[in-house]
Amino acid sequence: MTLISTLFPLICYFAYNIIVPQVEKLRPSLSTIMNMQRRRWVANATLRESPFDAILSGNIMGSVSFLASTAVLLILAIFAVFGQLSSLMEALDSLSIGRVYTTLDVQLHLVVMLTMFVLAFFAFTLSLRQFNHFCIMLGAIDHSTPTSEEEIEAITRMNALGARNFNSGIRAYYFSVATVAWFVSEWLPIVACIATILILAHREFFSSSHRTAASAAVIAARRQQGKAE
After folding, report:
1. How far apart are CA 18 and CA 7, in angstroms?
2. Which end of the chain is more exposed for a tag (fewer CB within 10 A), N or C?
3. Cα separation, 58 vs 19, whole angstroms
4. How many CA atoms lie within 13 A of 121 on its CB side?
5. What are the C-alpha distances in Å from 90 to residues 79, 85, 94?
């Protein structure tokens, strides 16, 4: 049971990232709807020559960079815990919550925690790189001639890739909370993971943000259709 509860957050993280894209084929998620807004952003950026789009891109990259740096600090903190394992074992024993911790169990769990934050780090840094590519592609637009639909789609896809990896890093942070719950009870990580999945699914598919973004997308589509007519 200890091994299952230790690995459960990591399994849920991978499973969620695999299952959600399949669910999005049946019901658009908030991320899917925002991809439509990303395309509108790129399409509108081709019509203006101003630093506005560069400022927006810089704000996005700043947020991603901050979370990537935080992941590095968390990774270093876990390595430091490995060096103070005896002190950690004493602290856990002093909690007196009816659990018996073995050194091997704690080491394995720390490895799982380390894996979660390493995955978050790679997701955030890949996202940062893709947003950097997006900025370059956005800056390379030639405003003297109309931009082709193919180029707009390519730039939009690069932005969407950066957002997808950013979401993956955020999810790693969310599921890492369940790994902390392991120190309290063997069952608590499982409960925490299920609660995390429900919260994430609600935010992606049923939240007020989802409804608002969907409404904005519908209004924009109607406006575009009216211009075409």
Report:
1. 17
2. C
3. 31
4. 14
5. 18, 9, 6
Which residue, among 48, 39, 227, 50, has the nearest Cα to 151 in the 3D structure?
39
Structure tokens at 67: 């979370």
Please name the residue that has the structure tokens 């695999």: 18
CA gap 66, 63 in Å, rounded: 5
- The CA distance from 152 to 86, in Å, is 57
How far, CA to CA in Å, does 200 sit from each of 20, 72, 88, 123, 134?
10, 24, 32, 18, 27
pLDDT at 25 exceeding the cut of 80: yes
Q: How far apart are CA 170 and CA 17, in angstroms?
A: 11
pLDDT at res. 92: 76
Tell me the two tokens of residue 64: 């991603």
| Residue-by-residue DSSP string for 149-202 | HHHHHHHHHHHHHHHHHHHHHHHHHHHHHHHHHTTT-SSHHHHHHHHHHHHHHH
The closest alpha carbon to 58, from 165, 139, 123, belongs to 139
Which of 112, 89, 114 lies closest to 102, judged by CA?
A: 89
Q: Dump pLDDT digits (tens) for 114-152.
A: 999 999 999 999 999 999 999 999 888 888 888 899 999
